[in-house]
Amino acid sequence: MQSDRLFQIVYILLDKNQVTAKELAEKFEVSTRTIYRDVDKLSMAGIPIYTNKGKGGGISLLDHFIMDKSILSNEEQNKILIGLEMIKATEYGDVDQAISKLKTLFNKSDESWIEVDFSYWGSSKLEKEKFNKLKYALTSCISIKFDYRNLYGSMTVRMVDPLKLIFKQKSWYLEGYCLLKNDYRFFKVNRINNLIVTDTLFNRSKYDLNKLNPTFPSNKIDNPIHLKMVFTSNIKHRIFEEFADHVITELSDGNLEVNIVLNEDEWLYSYLISFGEEINIIEPDYINKILVQKLTKTLERYLDNS
């Protein structure tokens, strides 16, 4: 469209200061005569554009010409660009041209600073393909079908309209409307198998996204326990990764003391056992006895099978 070409000419001149009619003609695949007509139209519209003939000449804007962008604050300009960069990073839609135009208008650097990869470190090829399928289904509003294994090991086939991918408590979850249960549900992504993107489109606007949050497990602690633990310096990297700084105290010998309130349940026992010989539970002592019982049963099972 001619109007779009006129705007792009101004953006190019703001960025490069001066270009030749031939360069613009090649870029827009029109004749140089058309470019000169565009220049006349821009001039008539009040844009201070002019041409210099001869060697080293070209088309330019008057020095210090700035398009009116005062309607947006610097913070608002940055938010717009951040949003577009994130859309670009998810590979949804072609926004390169819009980003380039706005960066020129806002006088921002032309560097891409964000990359989004939904898969986790060490993901297999299949896992990355799963996230790519989820991303495509979410952005295209297409229903998906998959096998889902719940906490108790039961497998069901689900047909879901995907609405949101979230990262919570160190795990990825898919939130959507389950057509099997006729209700909003959340699914842990690593329990999703045999994912298929169907040919069925759905209308996202018919769903109330505010109804998603109540279905997600709360952070409420039903059976709180205060743990005082000391971890060896061998796993310092893991401790700082999995616990908040304010519950960690670095001891003089390099080991780490952790004081924290957690929910006492089977998951906690398994979690503490995962630290192996690198953990020493100071308080409460009865937790040590519970772990010894569980480890003893595990050892007996292996001995029986040997």
TrEMBL record:
<keyword id="KW-0805">Transcription regulation</keyword>
<dbReference type="Pfam" id="PF13280">
    <property type="entry name" value="WYL"/>
</dbReference>
<dbReference type="InterPro" id="IPR028349">
    <property type="entry name" value="PafC-like"/>
</dbReference>
<dbReference type="InterPro" id="IPR026881">
    <property type="entry name" value="WYL_dom"/>
</dbReference>
<dbReference type="InterPro" id="IPR013196">
    <property type="entry name" value="HTH_11"/>
</dbReference>
<dbReference type="Pfam" id="PF25583">
    <property type="entry name" value="WCX"/>
</dbReference>
<dbReference type="InterPro" id="IPR051534">
    <property type="entry name" value="CBASS_pafABC_assoc_protein"/>
</dbReference>
<dbReference type="GO" id="GO:0003700">
    <property type="term" value="F:DNA-binding transcription factor activity"/>
</dbReference>
<dbReference type="InterPro" id="IPR036390">
    <property type="entry name" value="WH_DNA-bd_sf"/>
</dbReference>
<dbReference type="Pfam" id="PF08279">
    <property type="entry name" value="HTH_11"/>
</dbReference>
<dbReference type="InterPro" id="IPR036388">
    <property type="entry name" value="WH-like_DNA-bd_sf"/>
</dbReference>
<dbReference type="InterPro" id="IPR057727">
    <property type="entry name" value="WCX_dom"/>
</dbReference>
<keyword id="KW-0804">Transcription</keyword>
<dbReference type="InterPro" id="IPR001034">
    <property type="entry name" value="DeoR_HTH"/>
</dbReference>
<feature type="domain" description="HTH deoR-type">
    <location>
        <begin position="2"/>
        <end position="60"/>
    </location>
</feature>
<protein>
    <submittedName>
        <fullName>YafY family transcriptional regulator</fullName>
    </submittedName>
</protein>
